[in-house]
């Protein structure tokens, strides 16, 4: 059987471990795959369009890039159970005197990397929808760690959180999962900060297939993937590292806010010069 080539971005060294386990699982299931690694998401989307790979494990922004560059013809696959219904919080200090989004006018707001959907693009669109215009009504302080990785790391978000603690910014954005993790490990003190507002729900990562990939082949990949079982110790290690308990059917309705953000900022034209 021809091996399905699947792209994955190395946003962390654990990625190669994760996909080594997935490859072995697929081999054992009689549906061999080959993982092709990329340094960033643009390279991976380029690889998908150039048929270096059949399927890409895409960030939400890479999904949008693939969707736009294939005129909506890219195939949509599975996502993790944790990819659905995420939200980002804007956090301020309790004693800041900031009690509404309108109080942020003229203030400095911390964001993650330039290409982070959760800590910059969707938040900027949320502020826009609530009457605060980018480049006019507030000062952006961006923490550009891991540019090209689409915020798939805590780097810029975490630095911005520390900037809030240190008084360098008046507010900062972070994914709900990161907020909860940082409260749990003591990075953030719930007695010192508060959530000022939050975005509408959005979705995160999803598999994208090349438009010309045989749909039955793609669906077989999804079928095998969904056999992974969190209760199986051999699978649990990988699933814990990848942050899921179950693979579920993908959906694209959760990318609406990111699509709006790209249109508002003309992001891809500015970022990729396209």
From TrEMBL:
Gene3D superfamilies: Periplasmic binding protein-like II
Pfam families per the UniProt record, alphabetical: Phosphonate-bd
Protein name according to UniProt: Phosphonate ABC transporter substrate-binding protein
Species this chain originates from: Gemella sanguinis
